[in-house]
Amino acid sequence: MNCAERSQTRQDPGAHAPRTRGYPVILTAAAILVTAGLFVACGSGTVPRAAPTATAMGSAPPPPCRGDQLTAGAPFFVGATGSQGGGLRLWNTSNAACRLTGTPIVAIRDASGQILPVANQPAPDRSAAPFTLPARQTVPASPSGDGAGAAAVEMQWFNWCGDPESRPLTFVLTLSSADTVQAPTTSVRPPRCDDMTKGSWINVAPFVQVPSH
Questions:
Q1: Smallest Cα–Cα separation from 94: which of 112, 75, 67?
Q2: Across the strands, what pairs with 120?
Q3: End-to-end CA distance of the chain
Q4: For residue range 90-117, what is the model confidence (pLDDT) as tens digits?
Q5: Residue 125: what pLDDT?
Q6: Do the beta carbons of residue 201 and residue 118 sit within 8 Å?
Q7: Disulfide check for 14: which of 20, 28, 131, 177 has CB 3.0–4.6 Å away?
Q8: Cα–Cα distance between 93 and 194 in angstroms, integer?
């Protein structure tokens, strides 16, 4: 029997049902189900489904940034009640996007190439989500100028009781990928010595992305 014949011969079962209380309701519900079944059978045979969207499917994030993908601007620090506070920015100048996450390990190298005895400490109460640096970013002329879209890391250096004339210094950042990025500077001075009995340390915040305008 085709769909047209079914439609013509289909009758409401409730019309011939006994007048027993409740039965016509049950049979009418059954008729609705039968009718629904006929509509499905006479249709395409499949229930239409929305195609998965890019948002639903998701996309794999880019790989972690390598050291050779990033260009660091010169660190910029200012005096902050005896310490030196500031940071630096990084741009992805490669041809592929990459992902930055976490807090870098910062080492400070003096003019002779020696690593200064400065302990790393995470900046208190700081956290940040991973983010993507787009490819082919442009490095501005000034390291403290417009850094929209760049990666930034803030630092605060305390209690240097070593040679105050160990400049020029180079800040060496170790990324989560274990690669390093070097950022030389001629302007940053070590902080003052506040306590000869204590070592020197630097607070380092996680990478963040400078907001775009």
A1: 67
A2: 202
A3: 68
A4: 999 999 999 999 999 999 999 999 999 9
A5: 74
A6: yes
A7: 28
A8: 40
pLDDT digits (tens, 9 = 90+) for 54-78: 334 568 999 999 999 999 999 999 9
Mean residue pLDDT of the chain comes to 78
Q: Are 101 and 207 in contact (CB under 8 A)?
A: yes
The lowest-confidence range among 2-16, 26-40, 162-176 is 26-40
CB proximity list for 134: less than 8 A, separation 6 or greater:
92, 97, 149
Whether 129 and 151 have beta carbons less than 8 Å apart is answered as no
pTM, two decimals, is 0.70
Helical H segments across 101-204, by residue range: none
As beta bridge partners, residue 90 has 72, 151
Q: Check if the beta carbon of residue 206 is closer than 8 Å to that of residue 128.
A: yes
In one letter, which amino acid is 163?
A: D
Rounded Cα distance, 128 and 123, in Å: 12
